[in-house]
Amino acid sequence: MADPTPPAIEPGPADLTTLAVAYGYLGIPAGTDDVGLQLAISAVSERIATWCSRSFVLTEHTETYDGSGNPRLLMRNFPITAIASLEIEGRPVSARSNPHGPGYVHDGRRTLDVYGYTFPRGRQNVSVTYTAGYARIPADLVMACLDWLKTGYLAQDRPADLVARKAGDHEERFAALGGVVRMGGKSIPMPPSVYAVLSQYQDTLPA
């Protein structure tokens, strides 16, 4: 006889919250829909990371950059917690061991500076392996994920004919994973409360 138990779904690498927290926030009995809710958590978390153009979960990255001709490099993911290795044109550079010596230093945010060196102009001539992200996801970011999740996951509780609602200059249109807020003629695919938080975390620097 076939096992009726549905297959378990593992948490995604970008998940900003957990199944247990989501059940509690949504007011749903634990175990009601593990597969569906976990998929929704991962989908919303990935959408947040994509929209913000950065990773939030503490992760090691190996990346290459074009040298700019100056001694400062802005990392793609942040906040930086550790630098494992740095190579400039194939030559390894060590961490700065004293305030007056050569080497690299990071600021704990996203800036990597080198002293006694520079990042010479060139294509993909700088390689960095580093760890960045939050060991504990900030509470407002978790709440943004849960709010967006609630808007989409509980959509079946909305009247079928409710497709939009408006208050002042804000218009929210409902979609598969939440609303679309329209601000000043610009469409943003998320509820206004979520946008208010994520706009503070979005990486607006050119890629």
Automatic annotation (TrEMBL):
This is Phage gp6-like head-tail connector protein. It comes from Methylobacterium haplocladii. The lineage of its organism: Bacteria, Pseudomonadati, Pseudomonadota, Alphaproteobacteria, Hyphomicrobiales.
